Amino acid sequence: MTSPQIPAVAVGDVEELAVDGLRWLTAAARETPTGGLAWTAGPSDGGPDPSLYSGTAGNVPVLLEAWRHFGDDSYADAALRAGRALADSADSVDDDSLYFGRTGIALVLRTLERELGDTAAGSAADRALDRVRSRFDGARWGELYELMGGNAGIGLGALLAGDTELAVLAVEPYLRTAEETASGVHWAHRPGVVPRLHHISHGTLGIVVGLARVGAATGRTDLVGLALAGAADVVARDEAGPEGFLVRHSTPQHRPDVVEPFSYGWCHGPAGDAQVFRLLRDLTGDPVWPALADRCWHSVTRSGLPRRLRPGFWDNNGRCCGTAGVLALACDRIAERRDPYGFAEVLVADLAARAIRDGDGARWSNSEHRATPSDLEPRTGWAMGNAGIVRELLRFVRLSRGGDPRYAFAWPDQPPVAAPASADGRGADAGA
User: Which of 18, 217, 233, 332 is surrounded by the fewest CB atoms within 10 Å?
Assistant: First the structure.
């Protein structure tokens, strides 16, 4: 499972890999009856997946990224056609959440209006958000009650799509449902499940993101205060201090037969925890938060990833729980802290070495050690596939050439870099 030492990849070769990844991604799109473009989560899957997590909505950001990066209008045209498919699906999807449903679709449609002037997409976003509002039962939208599938994500997505009233409506219930702990508060991520999850994707820190951003944007100090109490609970669970930061997946361990107690990626580990601490740094100015983000990075860089140290340790290349998500944080730190490029280059080299490349382009297969065969089908979307990986490769290329570290589409739970600047003075041709 351990990968050999892999030499660094020239920046120009990284850009070529991203182009190949875009070629495979765009070729996987299916034309809809109205002339739109839609994707399934994987080439052999059934119907289109409109979601931000694994489907069409999550592919639009990388198309916008490619349009900005290369100045090629064909990527913008593909994004507009994807928006047409999203508008068609917004009424029929049976989920209102940010990552899996209608709120994420609405946010991407609003982005197409803002970035490309697509007024039809803007109107579709309005309709989608109205539909989300109509399905609120006074407390929640469904079983999940966190960032990805529940209230926190709906509040965050609505805020970023311009609907502050819906944003507040979504996160206010957390004031009534918070459970006090010895060090702060936490919440159940779904009814009837005893373990309390702690990290960004399904746990306390994801709720913290929604509360903090909505509270700060609307002047609701009670929401911000509750966010800080949630963060305090997670900070108190650290088992790696004083230099590192590492918190268990859940307490007691959720599904111990299939879930490892410690992870290092965006979803359930310090790569995602650091993004929350970056946000709290920006909102409060308290130096405790950047110090905690540094401790997260200490643990990530000393964990052994991206090597496959054992089955189940680090089997994913993708943005959600794999190497691309760590690369996102590495590039944030290069832009904000002028960190050296060394660890980012290790991550990029590993992604390059693991790419499947042929006449169709480039794509990545993740692993599942509990399945036979363990190599999974390559995916197209943000979470586990090309969209999430290529987006980070393009940003790495720009940074390496002294370009703008900001994304064309700022992911909802990844704060924009605090001080966009060339990280270490590399010239336009460095590494090419």
Answer: 217
